[in-house]
Write a structure and sequence with these properties.
This protein has helices at 2-15, 45-50, 152-166, 174-184, 353-359, 394-399; strands at 54-63, 68-71, 89-98, 101-107, 116-119, 138-140, 144-149, 190-193, 203-207, 213-215, 218-221, 227-232, 267-270, 287-291, 296-301, 312-318, 324-332, 337-343, 360-365, 367-369, 375-377, 388-390, 416-422. The protein has 424 residues and is an alpha+beta fold.
Length: 424
């Protein structure tokens, strides 16, 4: 690695982001590896607004039996309820918007903050059986997530039968024939859908953020192990391997529950990382960023060398392609700048200046932006991670580089990258 850094420095001087790992106490896993954003649902509206996270209060979901179904209302209409139950009642659902997407959906049962988190499962599932890179959750195939009572599934079937009776000569498409009109009333983002008018039992339906994917669920528990909340984070793009009949897809979801005397938050589904939420709690060398279209991921890594010429190192990947570029950031003086260089397929061992020029994709200043929008030079590792990165001219440079073309990168990234998560 040191040789690579020195080669990057030499060139500079010469040129002037079905299942994800999650914590479960039985297996001794670290729940923090599943998501760094569990505290999001404990924040008030004002705090969320200060972090550029919008809030939509949908209304109450009617849980007639207390058996909660979290899933895609169209892809798996027969999905079982979660093993843990809550008291029947009406519970408010709140949506959180970040960066143009539904970032989270929470169902609140009481105020408070859970003492710890646990993976939610269906009957018969055991988190202790999961391997690294696996998690239980639900698949999304129609781009929607929902919260409802298990009894409401029967009402959906009843409504479908009513529509079928009205159009006996054609098949029923529940989305087009029933749900679309409810979603259109809120620009297609969400709906508090009542399958049968005048009957108790409704469905909180919402965009699944990253669309089709795989969404785990987490329960928040108090110090006595009683259910206080169920919570889910839909932040990952590729969540790894699926288990059993659940197809491996992208994203995550959660639910929170509360009983008397239990600290609780809500049921929450996080579909996209609220990027500006916890960057400041992450070190720069652990930060992961994505571009606006989710086509590229920039992942920092520790240098592990106190004598390294670079102040930061990272990999920049064109997702869904084999293209992975190596990047380094080095301090420069007069004027003071953090100068970055991005390289692709550089030769190993000794390389000439011409070799290094040929494999250089981009070179320029790297800026970091904080939550208030203040911009500065990217800080070295050990500092708090920037909320956003700005790499001027990155997109056009990649289009003109050896990383571009058939079988390589075919989409130009944006020059601004947003904090996605804190790697562990």
């Amino acid at each position: 690695m040191r040789n690579r850094i020195m080669r990057a420095a030499r060139l500079l001087f010469c040129a002037a982001a079905a299942h994800v790992p999650v914590s479960a106490s039985a297996a001794g896993w670290d729940i923090g590896k599943a998501s760094s954003n569990f505290e999001l649902v404990a924040l008030g509206d004002a705090e969320l607004s200060g972090r550029s996270i919008g809030v939509i209060h949908m209304g109450n979901v009617e849980l007639t039996s207390g058996r909660i179904v979290a899933g895609d209302p169209l892809a798996r209409p027969d999905r079982p309820a979660l093993a843990r139950t809550v008291a029947p009642g009406e519970y408010p659902v709140t949506l959180y918007q970040a960066f143009g997407r539904i970032a989270a959906a929470s169902m609140r049962f009481a105020e408070g903050k859970p003492d710890r988190w646990e993976l939610a499962v269906l009957p018969g599932q055991d988190p202790a059986t999961l391997k690294d890179g696996e998690i239980f959750g639900y698949p999304v195939d129609a781009g929607l997530g929902c919260y409802m009572d298990a009894d409401t599934l029967d009402l959906i079937g009843e409504r479908e039968a009513q529509v079928q009776a009205q159009k006996a000569d054609s098949d029923v498409n529940y989305y087009d024939d029933v749900l679309a009109s409810d979603l259109d009333a809120s620009t297609g983002i969400y709906a508090l859908h009542r399958p049968v008018a005048g009957r108790r039992g409704n469905v909180a339906v919402f965009w699944s953020g990253w669309g089709d994917g795989f969404y785990p669920v987490f329960w928040g528990l108090d110090r006595h192990g009683r259910a206080g909340a169920a919570d889910g984070f839909q932040r990952c793009r590729e969540c790894g391997r699926a288990q059993g009949a659940e197809a491996a897809m992208r994203g995550r979801t959660g639910i929170m529950t509360r009983r008397t005397g239990v600290a609780a938050i809500a049921a929450a589904a996080f579909f996209v990382v609220p990027a500006s939420t916890f960057a400041a709690a992450c070190k720069q060398e652990q930060a992961v960023y994505v571009d606006r279209d989710g086509a590229y991921e920039l992942r920092f890594a520790p240098l592990n060398s106190p004598s390294a010429a670079a102040s930061n190192q990272f990999k920049f990947s064109a997702l869904k392609t084999p293209v992975v570029m190596e990047g380094y950031v080095m301090p420069s003086e007069d004027p003071v700048r953090a100068i970055g260089i991005l390289m692709f397929n550089c030769p190993e061992g000794d390389a000439t200046g011409a070799d290094l020029n040929a494999c250089t994709v981009w070179q320029g200043a790297v800026y970091g932006m904080d939550a208030e929008g203040e911009m500065d030079n990217l800080q070295p590792e050990g500092a708090a991670a920037a909320e956003k990165l700005v790499l001027p001219g990155l997109g056009p440079a990649i289009r003109e580089s050896s990383a571009w073309g058939e079988g390589k990168a075919v989409v130009a990234p944006w020059d601004v990258l947003t904090f996605k998560e804190c790697a562990t």
